[in-house]
Amino acid sequence: MRDVAFLILGILLLYGGGEVLVHCATRVALLLRVSPLLIGLTLVAFGTSAPELAATLVASFKGVGDVAFGNIIGSNIANLGLVLGLVALVRPVETTFRFVTQEMPFMLFTGGLLFWWARDGHLGRLEGLFFLLFLLVFLWFLIRRDGTLATLESGERKVPARKVFFYACGVFLGVALLSLGANVLVEGAVGIARRFGVPERVIGLTLVAVGTSLPELVSTLVAAYRRAGEIILGNIIGSNIMNVLAILGVTPLVRPFSFSREKVVFDLAIMMAFSLAAWAMLAHRKLLGRAKGAILFGGYLLYVYYLYR
Q1: What's the predicted TM-score (pTM) here?
Q2: Which domains does the chain have, with CATH numbers?
Q3: 21: Cβ–Cβ under 8 A, 6 or more apart, which residues?
Q4: What pLDDT does 209 receive?
């Protein structure tokens, strides 16, 4: 009975959080006269990556490095296979030449860095520092390209700072509701998996990863319903970049951690395979249709089946 109540409450919180997040993020972009893609890549991506940061830090301090690392890799795989695949099945996603030639290659670059530095089964403070430096470079590039968020006066119309602050707070309220709903849903699932003896690495790569990806999933599904296409891709690709550069930048600085060296190459290879597939599909005709979404979603289901078989 408790699990059923948690399930219903989690669904309600996720739905409410997704509606609030997408509405407020769209309003911030309109008020600041910046591209919704920039808001998706920064404000929304930072916010929806907050559950991953919390889960990774907690797992690191508890000494379960496999869960900490598996959470990030699994979340990135889930974002591309589960989230992007499902969203494309609901409504085809359009993109631009600039996104395919700039943001997508940078996501592949961050994945390649992680592949190189994590192959020894350990992430230390030096790697964390480099990740954060690359994050600063990425943010500087975005703001230089799409306009500064600090300028609240543009042309003839003065942008009301109070409204910007109000809707920015709304974005974080939406993220808080999404995070709470995801935690409520995942709590029971993780407990059941442990009772059946599912390995910690598999729990991190699937249940915890999907749980912490629920904010991205729900917010992008709501954005698809509201036809906010730029926020969809900005959120998904931005979250994958933030997961590596921000979360695996902060966590090793706070507490370096180790994980299973034997499995890391396989998990990272799967992550890179999904990244390359998503890039190729978006580059083809600048459209991710239902057939391509089905391939991504089907690939994710096969990956989960392999882990649990």
Answers
A1: 0.80
A2: 36-145+194-308 (1.20.1420.30)
A3: 44, 47, 48, 170, 171, 174, 175, 178, 215, 219, 222
A4: 65
